[in-house]
Design a protein that fits this description.
Helices cover 47% and strands 14% of the residues. The chain has 11 helices and 7 strands. Helix 8 (238-248) packs across helix 11 (283-294).
Length: 299
């Protein structure tokens, strides 16, 4: 009987496999083995804090930048690169090497298919945590012409699957990654997967809102005018704002008085103060300004 584990990766690659819809599966060929009992209290605390911060959205940062900055104190590395791959048909949508000299980028992209992580993608495109194996990869052009020359002989890879897309983040350094780093990243991986999917959904919703906003506003000048109107209304007293809103809803003085539980005389005094503050001549103009300021407001 063969001792080869089912679904074993090509070329004896040692990795951990994760499926969102099923319990975590760990390939028995992983080296070094994951041993959570050897994690110190400090390491567990740092992992917990990192997992919590992974779910904080930063609109001024990309997700790979967010991930790199959070994991750097726990997962030491010299280089960090990221890629977004389309799986069917296979294509590289984005590829960034922010810590690598740009002169290496061409050869990295030319020989990308030599990378054992890409082989994992093609063979088993689920969420993965993998480390550099000893084997055929060390004889490739990519390894010998790039990684050995930039002190990146050993890598630890996080691959996150989302439908037909795969996000890949690779941490590289000269020395092998130890059991502690593997174990910590193992605990972080489900949170990395979830936070990336939420991040992508948040960006998608933001883009949809921006598109709605661009359709509603004819120009930036109109948007600024609406913002100035809202500001002028917000500077009124709370009761005056109530009166403006009810005028905009089409109520007359008696209806406003009944709604707010005040006298008609008080309503008229509020309107006089509002007209003067907002530089309007009558209630129709006041209602129009309210609608201009709020009816097309997105956020």
């Amino acid at each position: 009987m063969s001792n080869t584990a089912p679904n074993s990766p090509p070329n004896g690659i040692k990795h951990i496999r994760f499926h969102s819809t099923s319990p975590t599966m760990i390939n028995m060929k992983l080296a070094p083995p994951v041993n959570f009992r050897n994690l110190s209290h400090e390491a567990l605390t740092r992992t917990f804090e990192t997992n919590t911060r992974l779910h904080e959205f930063d609109p001024d940062s990309t997700f790979p930048e967010h991930l790199y900055n959070l994991l750097k104190p726990s997962i030491s590395n010299i280089h960090f690169c990221t890629g977004l791959y389309q799986l069917q048909p296979f294509a590289i949508d984005q590829h960034e090497n922010p810590t690598i000299d740009p002169r290496w980028n061409d050869i990295v992209e030319q020989h990308a298919l030599e990378h054992y992580f890409v082989q994992i993608l093609l063979e088993d495109p689920c969420t993965h945590l993998a480390i550099t194996p000893e084997g055929t990869f060390q004889s490739t052009t990519l390894y010998n012409e790039v990684y050995t020359k930039i002190q990146a002989q050993h890598q630890m890879w996080v691959g996150i699957n989302a439908g037909n897309q795969m996000l890949n983040c690779i941490y590289s350094r000269e020395q092998p990654y130890d059991e502690k780093s593997i174990s910590m990243l193992h605990l972080m991986l489900p949170h990395i997967e979830l936070s990336w999917k939420i991040w992508e959904r948040t960006l998608s919703l933001k883009n949809e809102l921006d598109q709605m906003k661009s359709r509603l506003f004819q120009s930036e000048e109109e948007e600024r005018a609406a913002a100035n109107l809202r500001l002028s209304i917000e500077q009124l007293t709370p009761r005056q704002r109530d009166v403006v809103e009810l005028v905009a809803a089409g109520m007359d003085n008696q209806q406003i008085a009944d709604e707010l539980g005040i006298s008609i005389l008080t309503v008229k005094k509020h309107l006089q103060a509002i007209f003067q503050s907002m530089d309007v001549q009558h209630r129709t103009e006041l209602a129009a300004k309210w609608h201009q300021g709020y009816s097309i407001s997105i956020g």
